[in-house]
Fold:
Amino acid sequence: MRRVAICGLSMCKVGNHYNKSLRELFAEATLDALESAGNPCIDAMYIGNMSASEQTYQKNIASLLSNSIGLNSKPSILLECADGSGGAALYEGYKAVSSGLHDIVLVGGVEKMSEATRGENRKIGSMIIEQECEAFHGLSLDGQFALIMRYYMHHYNVSKRHFALFAVQMHKHAAGNRYAHLPYEISVEDALNMQTIADPVTLFDTAPTGDGAAAVILCPLEKAREFTENPVEIAGAGQASDTLALYDRKNILTFRATVEASKIALESSKLKISDINFFEVHDSYTISGFLALEDLGIIERGKVGHAVEEGLIDLNGPLPTNLSGGLKARGHPMGATGVYQAVESALQLQGQAGKNQIDPAEVALIHNAAGIGSIVTVHVLKRV
Structure:
């Protein structure tokens, strides 16, 4: 197996790009990523997207997008793993280069969600959950996370204020990220007093969906300096799955797929969680951010709220988390999110994260999940 590096990258600002189509957003990010690597000849392309068929009524996305950047003759594969699609695309691209099947691979993620109403987007989001029983009886993705959050608060005697503090922290980081959808700070009172989505989940407990595209170029590490002066190695990768239905879970306060995927990723990188300098975790809801930090072994179970309050996950703290603002404030263009995490973490490792740059930034872990952790992909990135 070959060592794999990121040798090119780019992303668009997450937001409401009413004047750009799905293919235009994708082309903008991918062509910039290709240019950053010196426009190498691409062997294959892997794309993460969740909802184009519902948002733009377009199927056959891989063909559409490969054509948009002139790669018609190359293998082009669409990965759909709900809002874990971007991480899944990166995982497949990593395997293709690592195995020797391909030398130069483009991994992209794109989502166009601004054309739909909030209600329509939440309906599309709820297609992530099990339909025959849970959705049929009125449960939504918001409802699932509300149940998990309510039980977490009861089980660990945690107040709503602790989740509000997490949202405040994410917005603080987003304020220093020019690519963020919500680049401004908020107060605890702002977070606590927002409208209720599904009690106890409020609007500021959820990540804003939006339009976005991000891309990375992968190549064998041994060839990386042919394309960039600052390659970033994908030192480890892991993926795991769990039941789709919440009712099938033995314990709804842990996402088993996160535990398993991170174990595989760390073992393949020959690193421990204590070796990681910063983390990008999937916080589509504040409670999912809590569970990710616990399942990854970063913070003790039931203690995340206190860790946030003590500043442990701040960019100046010992456990810097979601320096981009996370899904919560950087924004959550569903199928592109996992690729955004890779781009932002690679920039941090290259020392190009601007106001949010930390030191040291040698090793990163990125965690991308589908829904309630039904599919989870974890990658470990390392400065070369």
